[in-house]
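@channel sequence for tomorrow's demo:
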Amino acid sequence: MSTIIYPSPIFGPVHSRRLGISLGINLLPADGKVCSFNCIYCECGFNEDHRPTLPMPTREEVATKLEEKLRQMVADGQLPDVLTFAGNGEPTCHPHFAEIIDDTIRLRNQYCPRAKVSVLSNATMIHRQTVHDALMRVDNNILKLDTVDPIYINKVDRPNGAYDVNRIIEGMKAFNGHLIIQTMFMRGTDVDNTGEEYVAPWLEAVKVIKPQQVMIYTIERETPTQGLLKATHEQLDAIRDRVIAAGIPCTASY
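C-alpha cells (generated this afternoon):
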C-alpha cells in the first residue's frame, strides 16, 4: 500500500484537479498524521499506521517558511493560484489555526494578491468560534460532507470521537453561504454512496446549507482500504447536474 505523507509546513506547488497551481500549507507534523477522521480512502493512510513523533509546526515557523517560498516563487515568475491548507490530516486541529490564517492572508496580500487562500477541512472543528471566524476570512472555505447517513459516516469517514452530522449541517448553515461543500463519491464491496438512498438526502442537506459551490470528486490515488472503486463519469455527471438544477454551482472531478 502506497501512502503520501507531506512535508511540513510548506509543500509543492502541486497541480490540483479543483484549484489549479496550489502551494500547500501543512499544519501537521512532517512525519505522520493527525486527523479527527480516519477515512478508508485517505491518501495519507490510516492514523494508526502513521503516528507522528515530531510536533506540529509553530505559527512562527509556518509564516517564515511560507514567506521564503513565496519570495522564491516571485523570483521564479511562478505565482500560485491558491494557497491551500491541507496535508497530513485536519488543519483546523492546530491550536493556532486562526492566527496562522491571518499571517497567510497578510503574506498573500504582499506577494501574490491574486491567489486565493483555501482550507480543506472535514468540518469537525467548525463549532469552535475561532475556527468559524477564521474560515470566514479565507477565500475558499471547503468543507467535507460525504453523506448524511450516520452508518456510512462511521464506516467510511470513521470520526475519532462523537460526530453528529446534524450538528455539522447546522455549523455549515452558520457560514451563510460562505463555504464550498466537498463530497467524495465512491463504490466498494460494502460501501457505495452513489445510489439514490444516499444522494437524495445529501442533496436535500446541500439545499438547506446553501453553499456558494459544491465540488464532487472520486478516488484518484491508492487507498489504504483495498477494493474501493471510482464513481463513474456518468454517476458524477448525474449528481452534478442535480446540484446545478437546484441552483447551486457544482463541479465534478474524475
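heads up for whoever presents: The chain has seven helices and ten strands.
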